[in-house]
Amino acid sequence: MSYRGYQGYRSYRVVALPGEGVGLEVTAAALTVLKHVARLEEFGLQIDQGLIGQSAFVAQGSYFPEATAQLCQGADAILLGAVSAGLLELRQRFDLFANLRPICPSPALLHCSSLKPELLAGVDILVVRELVGGIYFGAAGRNIDQQGDYGYHTMQYHDWQIRRIARVALEQAQSRRRLLTVAHKENALPQLPWTRLVQAEAEAFPDVTVVPMLVDNLAMQLVLRPAQFDVILAGNLFGDILSDIGGAVVGSIGLLGSASLNAAGFGLYEPIHGTAPDIAGRGIANPLGAVHSVVLMLQQWGEQAAARRILQAVAALLAQGYRTADLLTQADEKRVNTQECLELLLAELVNQ
Ligand code: IPM
Ligand code: MN
């Protein structure tokens, strides 16, 4: 699932879909970082802005308008902020089935985690979440029977859907520490045999150890002993829940970025956090989740130097004690808002 390799002058078209809430603030900051790094690393950028979510509904009567889909067609990447509606349609439209969510605590932020710092040594997890199947996309509805009104959602997976996300997770494990933990719930959901299907795909990856784990136990293990994990593979619902635990592990969900890729390596990049209506519009949101999404975008393009530059700038900023409000825990830390965080980051980019 690697992106096409570039030779000579590189140029990329990015569709920015800020969405709503803090999505507007963090996407603007992340785009500024991207433009800055493009100048420093000498590649071209075209940024097209599109509508999704509430603002799209108000302007065009749909949470994911056809005009937005057309704009995304043929782009090199989509950068999304946060939305309350329209996202599932976007993911489905481009078959973005492979959601990669790295959970890697920053050395400067160990004390921000809800876990004891000694539990974080060596923690470097990649959650691979299936993103276009399962219960979020199964038959659903509301109905009425003798007992009254009821609702239902159906968790359905074709075997090929499990097998293709398994191959992505196995490839990722192979390039990391070669351990793949598979989240499943086969004691209650035996018709969804994740273990058997992943093990069958793993025959082509003899150097990867596959460990099936009941998802309830996995959730507990993530907070008891997170260092035991390398790659975690999960279906859509379980992956959604498990990756939020990752936010507590690293100290704030505002730090985490993600990539959602299709089979051609085309992707949507978005922070894991939501629209955060409680702080939206106040200019205090943590832009680093969106910035980490840009890092994943650059890595997928093969722009490794640019990605490294951003990661080092973020590390330097955090090492100097700068923190957005979601991360403040100690008196000697320096509180910054979104704009200040961005300006510090831009200054650091040049130093790397
Ligand atoms: C996420 C979000 C979305 C999801 C919502 C907004 C549909 O929680 O990206 O984790 O459940 O996938
Ligand atoms: Mn979620």
UniProtKB/TrEMBL annotation:
Pathway entry: Amino-acid biosynthesis; L-leucine biosynthesis; L-leucine from 3-methyl-2-oxobutanoate: step 3/4
Superkingdom: Bacteria
Span of domain Isopropylmalate dehydrogenase-like: 13-345
Catalysed conversion reaction: (2R,3S)-3-isopropylmalate + NAD(+) = 4-methyl-2-oxopentanoate + CO2 + NADH
Gene Ontology molecular function terms on file: 3-isopropylmalate dehydrogenase activity; magnesium ion binding; NAD binding
Enzyme Commission code: 1.1.1.85
UniProt cofactor(s): Mn(2+); Mg(2+)
Gene Ontology biological process terms, A to Z: L-leucine biosynthetic process
GO-annotated cellular components: cytosol
Listed InterPro entries: IsoCit/isopropylmalate_DH_CS, IsoPropMal-DH-like_dom, Isopropylmalate_DH
The protein's enzyme class: oxidoreductase
Record's keyword terms, sorted: Amino-acid biosynthesis, Branched-chain amino acid biosynthesis, Leucine biosynthesis, Magnesium, Metal-binding, NAD, Oxidoreductase
Self-association and partners: Homodimer.
Protein family membership: Belongs to the isocitrate and isopropylmalate dehydrogenases family. LeuB type 1 subfamily.
Name listed for the protein in its UniProt record: 3-isopropylmalate dehydrogenase
Native organism: Pegethrix bostrychoides GSE-TBD4-15B
Native organism taxonomy: Bacteria, Bacillati, Cyanobacteriota, Cyanophyceae, Oculatellales
